[in-house]
Amino acid sequence: MPMGHTATAQAGSGGLTATEHRLANGLRVVLSEDHLTPVAAVCLWYDVGSRHEVEGRTGLAHLFEHLMFQGSGQVKGNGHFELVQGAGGSLNGTTSFERTNYFETMPTHQLELALWLEADRMGSLLAALDEESMENQRDVVKNERRQRYDNVPYGTAFEKLTALAYPEGHPYHHTPIGSMADLDAATLEDAQAFFRTYYAPNNAVLSVVGDIDPEQTLAWIEKYFGSIPSHDGKQPPRDGTLPGIIGEQLREVVKEEVPARALMAAYRLPHDGTRECDAADLALTVLGGGESSRLHNRLVRRDRTAVAAGFGLLRLAGAPSLGWLDVKTSGGVEVPQIEAAVDEELARFAEEGPTPEEMERAQAQLEREWLDRLGTVAGRADELCRYAVLFGDPQLALTAVGRVLDVTADEVKAAARAHLRPDNRAVLVYEPVEPADETDGTDAHEGADK
Amino acid sequence: MEYHPQPTAGEARPWAFPAPERGALPNGLTVLRCHRPGQQVVAVEIFLDAPLDAEPEGLDGVATIMARALSEGTDKRSAEEFAAELERCGATLDAHADHPGLRVSLEVPVSRLTKALGLVAEALRAPAFAESEIERLVGNRLDEIPHEQANPARRAAKQLSKELFPATARMSRPRQGTEETVRRIDATAVRAFFDAHVRPSTATAVVVGDLTEVDLDALLAETLGDWSGNAGQARPVPPITADDTGRVVVVDRPGAVQTQLLIGRIGADRHDSVWPAQVLGTYCLGGTLTSRLDRVLREEKGYTYGVRAFGQVLRSTAPGSSSGSTGAAMLAISGSVDTESTGPALDDLWKVLRTLAAEGLTDAERETAVQNLVGVAPLKYETAASVAGTLADQVEQHLPDDYQAKLYARLAETGTVEATAAVVNAFPVDRLVTVLVGDASRIAEPVRALGIGEVTVVSG
């Protein structure tokens, strides 16, 4: 099969390799050497995310992630941050629907410290976790929610659209940040139980990438992580499978104090890890990626009805992925005019498929994104964990770009035809209100939750 | 689990900030190049000496529209064709105008560097500035303004500039113009600004990445080497002055669940010998979540997701220039706190500053800060884009090419007393202008009660 236009001989992988190991307690380890810069990245993925949360406790996985930085058996208070930063390293953690990750990038000679710190909290977090940390981080997370979602225009669009696209009771119906009420309701006992259930070596993948001696690194990992007992208390997440298409158009109109009308939509797409998902990624890129895409050319350049118009892809492995449309209108333009143009472009694309030039552009853009992601040791460590946790094989990270370049125009057209249709989307329309009108309903629903 | 003692560090491998090779093309373009093995995505930064204060009276935003118009068509390609060709290279191109000048940033896989740099050269040599495209960009910019007004952080930044700088200074007004000034911009104005300020002899290109397979001289000759222009004239650079009389301005947002804080003034830039001490002290004050501000405001009180202190150079001039040292940096503390906690959070923030002034930094704090600021350098400069960005910053701030490399040694030599003096001077409690974007009906009174300066309320 002919490959697309490639930038490097071994596109993306650039000759990178990774080795896999497993400790007796079930901890999976992935190592990848790269001696160009004296740095090493440590990345730890726990196979737990917001999809594992139960009703009434949304946001717990993310709140718990914060508690992982509040000390452990041998580490006081903010010691994780202090020790890593004091060693010239950088660190953080993030929580998504499907996993929670923790990462440190260290100067090579400080690698052992990062491994010791991660092992200490994996093995002994509960020795340090107390009410004071819990109360403090509850307030911090509530302020994170206000800052990132509640106090910015359109800030809750993602949450609203996710709630529309995945039905009530579905594990992806709520987003990782959780609700204020549930954050208030979470208890120290909930956090302790969460740790006991999900934070175990056999529910995690550890990757170390960069200027490392693999034998020495593996010996340190064995030393620090090897004595942490495994346990099997984990329940699998609720089933996230859904029919291939939604089957009707879901819709919500939001009347809020926002600067302009907006049309947003989420299309139900194939699961991450499939060839169809890569084909959908290319379709979204041709339609709405960058400044030469069909929607940008139509709405921003030619019709001049939008300030910005684009598509994004939220890749998900345990539920259908989402194709994310975001159009902010220009001046007094009304949403129906935008919507008609979007539908026309999508229908035309499903009919014609991409031109050879469009395929080349979309593949070149996605290839460069992969080069960026694999171009740093931290990015590579994260991708190795991702493929190990979600798809059981870290090596897939090194060949991912090849798979995107292997997709044909016919497959892209087929993906668009099957999924980018009006009866397979949840639509969110923003209609601005003046500050004075604030009282007349900020959350009007039209035809949602059918 | 079995506990093990905390491990000690191994032997550090030497690392130095890369030294670029400096040269020039026959057309006068200065070129800095830097080979970074393994970096397959090459970064090119082009600095154009077209500062915002060169914008004609009443045409604020013309530099921004010109920057955007550079990628909207040339003598050979329409706007759509240009964008398509660039994306066919897998490239990203960004151009933005700021106080020191205009920056064009290209990132592209090395295998397609020739093609992409050719497009950038075409944009600089012969931009179309078609009337229809300029009209579109002006309309688009006008549509963006309400979005920026609605964003609490952007709104706060705009208000702080207005408060600090005299109304006649370009720095007091939004970088990308106001509705009134942007509306006046047309293709003629854009062309005139380009003709007056864009030329190779006052521009610098920085090229960073894995250049093993690249004949950069030949490549530059056939791309940017084709660009021509006259010599240009030196422009006087006005000094930067600011009114930092301690005061509070509340930008009213009825119903806001949080208050956005931005507390600032101006201070020393990188030409000042105090810079390393100021960097160190500012890090100890608010560089990370274990710094003094977040230790109290976040980790003890839970008032915020995070508050940061920083210094950001606004504009610098060459040290030998006739106007003397006229550069300055914005020194600021920013973050957001829940509405109810606004008064208590500011009270604690001022306590942190007063305690710092009274008791100074500790040796341990200074040591941790040095370890972090110096130690993270190899991580921070792993990609070509990060190296190119810093080299271009040095160029636009008239600093020597080895500035960043030497800064690390100077940071390591800076003592606790110097760092304390620098940060206390940078953030004196009675010379700070505080902007609060939030619900005035709930925050104005508690803030007045703090006595941190006169409180005025303006509409959102």
From TrEMBL, chain A:
<dbReference type="Pfam" id="PF05193">
    <property type="entry name" value="Peptidase_M16_C"/>
</dbReference>
<feature type="domain" description="Peptidase M16 N-terminal">
    <location>
        <begin position="28"/>
        <end position="167"/>
    </location>
</feature>
<keyword id="KW-0645">Protease</keyword>
<keyword id="KW-0482">Metalloprotease</keyword>
<keyword id="KW-0378">Hydrolase</keyword>
<dbReference type="Pfam" id="PF00675">
    <property type="entry name" value="Peptidase_M16"/>
</dbReference>
<protein>
    <submittedName>
        <fullName>M16 family metallopeptidase</fullName>
    </submittedName>
</protein>
<feature type="domain" description="Peptidase M16 C-terminal">
    <location>
        <begin position="186"/>
        <end position="366"/>
    </location>
</feature>
<keyword id="KW-0862">Zinc</keyword>
<dbReference type="InterPro" id="IPR050626">
    <property type="entry name" value="Peptidase_M16"/>
</dbReference>
<dbReference type="InterPro" id="IPR007863">
    <property type="entry name" value="Peptidase_M16_C"/>
</dbReference>
<dbReference type="InterPro" id="IPR011765">
    <property type="entry name" value="Pept_M16_N"/>
</dbReference>
<comment type="similarity">
    <text>Belongs to the peptidase M16 family.</text>
</comment>
<dbReference type="InterPro" id="IPR011249">
    <property type="entry name" value="Metalloenz_LuxS/M16"/>
</dbReference>
TrEMBL record, chain B:
<dbReference type="InterPro" id="IPR050361">
    <property type="entry name" value="MPP/UQCRC_Complex"/>
</dbReference>
<dbReference type="InterPro" id="IPR007863">
    <property type="entry name" value="Peptidase_M16_C"/>
</dbReference>
<feature type="domain" description="Peptidase M16 C-terminal">
    <location>
        <begin position="185"/>
        <end position="373"/>
    </location>
</feature>
<protein>
    <submittedName>
        <fullName>M16 family metallopeptidase</fullName>
    </submittedName>
</protein>
<dbReference type="Pfam" id="PF00675">
    <property type="entry name" value="Peptidase_M16"/>
</dbReference>
<feature type="domain" description="Peptidase M16 N-terminal">
    <location>
        <begin position="32"/>
        <end position="165"/>
    </location>
</feature>
<dbReference type="InterPro" id="IPR011249">
    <property type="entry name" value="Metalloenz_LuxS/M16"/>
</dbReference>
<dbReference type="Pfam" id="PF05193">
    <property type="entry name" value="Peptidase_M16_C"/>
</dbReference>
<dbReference type="InterPro" id="IPR011765">
    <property type="entry name" value="Pept_M16_N"/>
</dbReference>
